[in-house]
Amino acid sequence: MQNQMLRPILPMLAVALSLTIPSVAFAHAFLRSAEPAVGATVKTAPQNLTLNFTERLEAEFCRVEVTDAQGARVDQGRVQGDPSDGKRLIVPLKPLKPGVYTVIWHAVSVDTHKTEGRFRFTVAQ
Fold first, then answer.
1. Domains in the chain, number
2. Which domain does 118 fall in, by range?
3. Which of 123, 97, 95 lies closest to 37, judged by CA?
4. Would 10 be classed as within a structural domain?
5. CA separation (Å) from 88 to 14, 52, 81?
6. Is residue 109 part of a domain?
7. So what's the pLDDT on residue 22?
8. Distances from the Cα of 34 to the Cαs of 7, 9, 91, in angstroms?
9. Can you give the pLDDT of all 125 residues of the chain as single tens digits?
10. Would you say 49 and 90 are in contact if contact means Cβ atoms under 8 Å apart?
11. Does a structural domain hold residue 47?
12. Could you tell me if residue 21 is inside a domain?
């Protein structure tokens, strides 16, 4: 008889417990914007590529490669976190000639979730 009385209470107890346990937010750092912008054509070759993300980053674990149309790297091989904005990466570039450039990025947010993507921009003649 006692088991029969507990059966209807158990589901309600499970719901009450699930409401009291804090949920963990799983954030991913997605690319919000870039300078030069995704798909943009710029008149002046940039000295840096700037990537802005939706979440704070672990800059030392992020990677960014910028290549020209022949696949040669034109980034200077280092990614810098912006000390004034934990959601921003700055990538110094070699002098760019007119042409199409591909950006391949791998970001790690502060909660260790990884995201990646690629886009192109063009430096006009």
1. 1
2. 31-123
3. 123
4. no
5. 42, 5, 6
6. yes
7. 46
8. 56, 54, 11
9. 555 555 665 555 455 544 444 434 556 899 999 999 999 999 999 999 999 999 999 999 999 999 999 999 999 989 999 999 999 999 999 999 999 999 999 999 998 999 999 999 999 98
10. yes
11. yes
12. no
